[in-house]
Amino acid sequence: MRTVLYILTTLAVIGLAFWAYRENYATQAALADTRALRAEIRAAHERLAVLRAEWAYLNRPDRLRDLAEINFDRLQLLEMRSEQFGLVRQVAYPPDPLLPISNPIDVVHIEDETRP
Description:
3 helices; 61% helix; flat; Cell division protein FtsL; cell cycle; cell division
């Protein structure tokens, strides 16, 4: 009986060791994937910062003004002035649409005689 118990205990220890070995390697692989993803995210943030800097550089008002002057014959772009803007109250909004009545109900008002 003791022999069977020793054999079962030994098999359980071997099984647990194998399971722990596999879990260790799975954990190491997950950590490596996480490190790789974090590196990709850092690289994407760096690319985004560079793109934002380039966008800010390309959208400088003096540069855009010069481009508009160079291409005036083709684009006909004029400088914006404050007189070109209107007020909100000057905007003609369309009227609200009338909703169709699909099931009309007659309402009868009955006077309550108990009221003073």
